[in-house]
Amino acid sequence: MSSINVDVSLKESLKDADTLRDLAEIEEMDFSRIFDRPPRPLNMDRQRSCDERSLSELSAGVPIPSPRPSSRIENNFRLFDHLNCSSSPGRRSGFNTPISQTGVETHPTMAEAWEALRRSLVYFRGQPVGTIAALDNSEEQVNYDQVFVRDFVPSALAFLMNGEPEIVKNFILKTLRLQSWEKKIDRFQLGEGVMPASFKVLHDPVRNNETLMADFGESAIGRVAPVDSGFWWIFLLRAYTKSTGDTSLAEKPECQKGMRLILSLCLSEGFDTFPTLLCADGCCMVDRRMGVYGYPIEIQALFFMALRCALLLLKQDEEGNEFVQRITKRLHALSFHMRSYYWIDLKHLNDIYRYKTEEYSHTAVNKFNVIPDSLPEWIFDFMPVRGGYFIGNVSPARMDFRWFCLGNCIAILSSLATPEQSTAIMDLIESRWEELVGEMPLKVIYPAIESHEWQIVTGCDPKNTRWSYHNGGSWPVLLWLLTAACIKTGRPQIARRAIELAETRLIKDNWPEYYDGKLGRFVGKQARKCQTWSVAGYLVAKMMLEDPSHLGTVALEEDKQTKPLIRRSNSWTF
Ligand code: GLC
Questions:
Q1: Is the Cβ atom of 183 under 6 angstroms away from ligand 1?
Q2: Which of 119, 373, 471, 531 could serve as a FRET partner for 538 with CA atoms 20 to 30 Å apart?
Q3: Per the record, where are the segments of Basic and acidic residues compositional bias (predicted)?
Q4: Per-residue model confidence (pLDDT) at position 140
């Protein structure tokens, strides 16, 4: 590298450092205003302090107290000790007798849910390492007898919020070991950083031995790539660190390396013209062909979340610093792109409706050459006067206007959505309650595709017929994401309403994986029963409503620098 290059990159990093200092200031915002009742002061101090430190110390010019280059994370979280926050007020020794932290009697569904979650525990050589996807063994199980990385997230959060972090730590370390496996599909070797979709414990009764077997997509139906697994892993590492105050796990050289390997995969340079991540179909929760190929919102929001979590967790050594700079640049570009091109509301919809096409050059308004005739009929009725959301996908001549619940909730939690956009998403959920919640929370995607479109888009998938499974089915697991988003936006009453609906049926129906129908009235055609993430999603939602300070475990405050420059009415254009 020439000296000029060094100067340029130094300046860049100083500029980035300013951004990060701003991030730190934002962490000082009064978080409590977003809750409808005052949070416990101890918890809130703990949460604010933790990110304050980590972010401010990332910025150049802010002295790092410890001379050891490896001490950043430890320093980030040291305030935990002073505030005695490593012992959460929610810590309890057992799951069978859930006690409300507010002294209010808990709903009977809670006790059943804790029991079901306990039954789903998977042990490896005597230690709990995860939860099985579903305990339902009424039919051939396919791979529901495995521990899925994405499915374990709500379980992990339930255990963290209950003061039981060990299983989460075990899971993080075990999956890290799996990452280091040589991964092959036929003759093709997968990237080093790829995290498994799922794993299973194999018992050998003859040798009285246990081994792990992982699936990186080589056994999965359709050979789909679990792009989301690595992002969820980083998210969990940060959730664990935040909730326990134990920085030693994230500081482990193997955790730092695991993180860098995941980041190398998604930050690598290629032919892209967009900062979003290009993916094949079935790369996330929607793990079948459903037209999510390209730049799906779920992955982009998780990507953004994982990058921000990694910023907090990376050590300030030579290798860590290089990633911090790459992440910071990518975050700027990514938030600009998402907020500008994925955001839709009534005003923006009207703009697209009137788009000119075939525009060449920098002055083009319709940058992706989206043809107004491709606007689906349903969107004109669906779009409320107040409200908006991030659409499903954007690429040349393609805007997938479908609503994806997980991506929009993660956009709120990671602050990819500005506060105004977050409010607008909640407005949309409220005004389109029947469509998005109906009788059972929550639609994974809205609306369903049918007839010829279903044939073309899903390849005639009989599991994904209209208003079933991924194609407009209702998934109770999404309750935890909705609840967290509601608390972050100061609208807990929305979550309460949704949870009450779920409580009328979940036990009766034995915790189905998903519900079918426009209103979600029917237990899903092929839904598993005793689906662990339906159980855990409900538990996490309840615990967060009861003690909103848990929000800090799953949410990040806004970064001022990534705010849009110009705001026009309630539309976001640059
Ligand atoms: C289904 C879901 C997927 C989930 C898996 C295990 O394949 O689509 O998101 O991880 O089941 O529950």
A1: no
A2: 471
A3: 36-55
A4: 67
Rg (CA), the chain: 23
Q: Give per-10-residue mean pLDDT for the chain (574 aa).
A: 34 35 30 34 31 32 34 45 31 41 70 97 98 85 90 98 98 97 94 97 95 94 95 98 98 98 96 96 96 98 98 96 97 98 98 96 94 97 98 97 98 98 98 98 98 98 98 98 98 98 97 98 97 98 98 91 40 28
Work out the number of other CB atoms within 10 angstroms of the CB of residue 19. Answer: 20
Cβ contacts of 1 within 8 Å, gap of 6 or more? 9
Q: Is the CB of 287 under 6 A from ligand 1?
A: yes
Residue 135 in 3-state DSSP? coil
Q: Which of 265, 192, 262 is nearest to 233 (CA)?
A: 262
- pLDDT at res. 195: 98
The whole-number pLDDT of residue 72 equals 57
Cβ–ligand 1 distance for 330 under 6 Å, the answer: no
Supply angle C-alpha 130, 164, 227, rounded to 5. 40
| Residue 354 burial (C-beta neighbours within 10 Å; 0-12, 13-18, 19+) | exposed
Residue type present at position 119: R
CA distance 143 to 223: 13
Both tokens of 16, joined, read 């980035």
Question: Is residue 531 helix, strand or coil?
Answer: strand
The residue behind tokens 């802010």 is 62
- Whether the CB-CB separation of 261 and 192 falls below 8 Å is answered with yes
Tell me how far apart the alpha carbons of residues 301 and 555 are, in angstroms, rounded to a whole number.
13
Supply the pLDDT for residue 348: 98
The model carries a pTM of 0.84
Site to probe by mutation for ligand 1, drawn from 131, 132, 135, 148 as the one with most ligand atoms within 8 Å of Cβ, is 148
Instruction: Residue 228: name the closest of 272, 166, 292 by CA.
Output: 292
150 lines ligand 1 (CB under 6 A): yes
Between the CA of 287 and the centroid of ligand 1 the distance, in Å, is: 7
pLDDT number for residue 76: 45
Q: How far apart are CA 477 and CA 262, in angstroms?
A: 25
Q: Evaluate: CB of 133 within 6 angstroms of ligand 1.
A: yes
Residue whose CB lies within 8 A of the most ligand 1 atoms, among 135, 143, 151, for a mutation test: 151
Pocket test for ligand 1, best of 285, 531, 532 (most atoms within 8 A of CB): 285
